[in-house]
Model the fold of this input.
Amino acid sequence: MSNIINVARGLEKADLVIKNASIVNVLSEEIHKGDIAISDGVIAGVGANYSGKKEIDVNGAYVTPSFIDGHVHLESSMMLPQEFAKTVLPTGTTTVIIDPHEISNVLGLHGISFMHEAVKNLPLDVYTMLPSCVPATPFETSGFDLNSYDLSLLIDKPWVLGIAEMMNFPGVLNLDKNVISKLELAKESGKCIDGHAPYLQGKDLCAYIASGVKSDHECTTPQEAIEKLRLGMYVMVREGTAAKDLDALIPLLKTCNTRKCIFVTDDRHPEDLKEHINGMVRRAVEAGVDVIKAVQIGSLNTAEYFGLKNLGAVAPGYKADMLILPDLKTFKPDVVIKNGEVIAQNGKLTITIPNIEDLSMRGSVNVRWITPEDFRIEAKDTKSETAEVQALEIIPRQLITKSVISEVKIQNGNAVSNIENDTLKICVIERHRATGNIGRGFVKGFNLKCGAIASTVAHDSHNMIVIGTNDYDMYAAAVALIKCQGGKVVVKDGEIISQLPLPIAGLMSDRDFDFVVSKSEELNNAARSIGCTLEDPFMTMGFLSLPVIPELKVTDKGVFDTKQFGFIDIFENAQVNAV
Done:
């Protein structure tokens, strides 16, 4: 204490002084000149004529607080946390709030413990929100079921900030005892509760917020976001690999009070981590958002929402987590400072991040014996050459799907893919408990002309999802994933043409960033070679089994309609809707 006070008063030399900085002050919303004195990893003073044991004269360059990602599933990077840290630290992100929801659906509390152990000793601050919906719904089979008692074992840990996205908003509104007990657990512990409530509005939205939920990252229109801001919610502006909402919400950021807005990435593949929160700040400024407000959204706002009182600003008493920027346009930091130490320069780490060792993880792909016949869908009318079915149609760059009527072919009494009108078979195979559950339906939007694609990354229960033009390639793809204990694969004529093994919970690789990126690019190219027209088919496919997002999804238990809030017969439903 005496040291930092003396340094702040100028009586002792600081450990490090950033000289002649143009300070982007997110507290006073101005840019002003000054020196920044750092002692023991904390900002001691901001002002004129500080001296330090080490000094960096930035000659008027801009200094901002470093960035914070307010909601991210590290597992979606398909890399271990050490590789994630190596990737995002040079971009200026030095703190992330994670929701280990994906690995928890596979491995339960062991998954949460694995992630916590994996982030220890990283030069990246990682805080955890405990998954609230494992499984997300009772309409799918997950590896584990976490109740409020399970979460109570961790809620008081200092690295736990609260309860993560409460996707089961119907459970909140209908006073589901299990859901309410989780909300009460967070409130009794004085911790945050994140939300997840697409399209919820009016009195139901009021009830959801009154229950204690204070944020949402599912807004896709300014109107939806404004209503939630008016009612006191923090709006998490999301820009992931599949769900991209930043452009749609720019009008909100330009016209409304942004102090309750936060930048988050949610789910991103590794190739989209080369720019992180800094890329969102850059794009917001390019679109006309005030530069200081954009920096606030990426730093101070997030820290304040989560109660991280020493993060998010360049001021005395705050952690010395800062960026030195040559301009306020590109937002590519020349220097990244973490805890008062330079950790990256010119887009490259200047420190060594040790590899994780001795973290045990059991195999997680447990599938009942399957054959090509398991992929068959028996037709209702075996005499016809075609049949109408209720299919899910993807919406590019969105997680929501449309429920549409489409025509499939009938062969040997079975409904099969119709390549001509892009109606392909989709199957979800339970892979945690070897129950033998297989949900079967049809999907439009992938445009495969042959072969199949498959993945064990399938939100949120992460069963095995397979899309294909024929049963034999779908079977070959599923077998390939069983053999490698999870991953992603493209198959053509029974042969694997591209594969990325993800042996850690069927979600993450044990290889480095370059390997995962190169294999991801290879997978996408392989998918295009068999006709796929989507930018990132595997990310899109990974959300087609998530029954909390409208309109139609497929789980291991069947085709689920979120409007009817139940499973449907795809043949009968097509007839009803056609009338």
In short: The chain has 17 helices and 30 strands. The mean pLDDT is 95. The CA atoms of residues 255 and 289 lie 9 Å apart.
